[in-house]
Amino acid sequence: MDRIAITGGARLEGEIAISGAKNSAIKLMAASLLTDQPLRLTNMPRLADTRFLGQLLRRLGTEIVEQDGDDGAETILHTREIVSAFAPYELVRQMRASFNVLGPLIARTGHAKVSLPGGCTIGARPVDLHLEALRALGASIDLHEGYVYAQAPRGLIGTEIEFPFVSVGATEHVMLAAVLAKGETVLRNAAREPELGDLADCLNKMGAQVSGAGTSVIRIQGVDHLNGATHSVIPDRIETGTFALAAAMAGGEVRLTRTRSDFIDTLLDKMVEAGVEVIRHNDGMTIKRNGARLKAVEVETDPYPGFATDLQAQFMALMTLADGESVIKETIFENRFMHAPELARLGADIVVSGGEARVRGVETLEGAQVMATDLRASVSLVIAALAARGETVVSRVYHLDRGFERLEEKLSACGANVRRIAGTGEPED
User: Fold this and answer.
1) Nearest alpha-carbon partner for 108 in 175, 185, 36
2) pLDDT in tens, 222-263
3) Strands 63-69, 72-78: parallel, antiparallel or unpaired by DSSP?
4) Minimal CA–CA distance to 219: which of 159, 173, 165?
């Protein structure tokens, strides 16, 4: 597999256009199963994850056309009929969000057989909540040999569901199923992420009746059928935050465009607290750092609008060079400090205890061979490498390719010394 080599020390100067949101795009793609008419998605990111889901959707009966449009890359998905309601392990294992085809398949066909997901190694992330919610909507659910067998021959029935804890995946999944259910579905303690609002906007353009997305209570009035639509994917807030942190780490001045600063308010507040200058614009923000040493700050991950767990690893990279001791508390995923030992290979001083990491800032980082363990961890190593002396080589970059579009190209355009080494890394498991 490919590796990425970074020679640290270059300041970043320039402009980076942010891609469409991965975590939104893959749920919007799944929504195409709910109608026999075309769904046209613009501002689409071209990623390994969207490619994996496309492979699965084609198997289920979706025709997919990718093209360039006025709003960047477009994907047109057209599922005239579901030719198969079977999602096999070899396709679902590549990306756990593929599991979200289960709800739309049940809603449209009344049955489905979908593999339990594999996914990242950052925690158990069980799908119990998903299955319990689908049962509450009237689906019969059985588990055999790693597969979910679901039946709802008379259709799904609206109900009231209160999640025991906030789950983005379960909230999205129920939305995708309930839009075609009979009657009203009310979701309480629902996730509030911007991607939920994006999914609701798209579903409503297709003829659904979803209200309250972005709040903790979402109401869905079921309809008999959905139509096609055209929808632009929202900017990727995690990519936005990642490049903001990369600019802060390397120093310099970088303008991030085609995005929204309000999606990452909590992160930007912490960056300002750490001594980074942030200037907000209508279409994004400018990140400045003049070379002065960063200040240590404390962060705790939380569901949106709190500090995103998907930005924790990148922020830890920034704190490795801060003056003092930072405390980073992870409350979402139990195994999400696996990047810490790899950052330590670059010279970082990090002590992990349970769900807490203490980062004592060091004067310098030194380049080394490191290995990515998951998507966000992989990019944290790239961020750290931008400020490290000498060369850092990151292996297992297939993790990066899952969630970042043209990462090396975007960083290189701002002056970073980043290159891809083809085909000499460790093979994928």
Assistant:
1) 36
2) 999 999 999 999 999 999 999 999 999 999 999 999 999 999
3) antiparallel
4) 159
Q: Which residues are catalytic?
A: 120
Residue carrying structure tokens 């030719």: 83
d(CA 98, CA 115): 9
363, exposed or middle or buried, with CB in 10 Å at 0-12, 13-18, 19+?
exposed
CATH number, span 22-232: 3.65.10.10
Instruction: Say whether the peptide bond before residue 427 is cis (omega within 30 degrees of 0).
Output: no
Q: Same fold for the domain at 3-18+235-421 and the one at 22-232? A: yes
Tens digits of per-residue pLDDT, 118-155? 644 434 456 899 999 999 999 999 999 989 999 999 99
Residue 307's pLDDT is 97
How far apart, in Å, are the Cα atoms of 390 and each of 8, 211, 346, 348? Answer: 6, 52, 10, 15
Which residue is listed with tokens 């990727």?
A: 236
CATH number of 3-18+235-421: 3.65.10.10
> Which three-class secondary structure state does DSSP give residue 187?
strand
pTM of this structure: 0.94
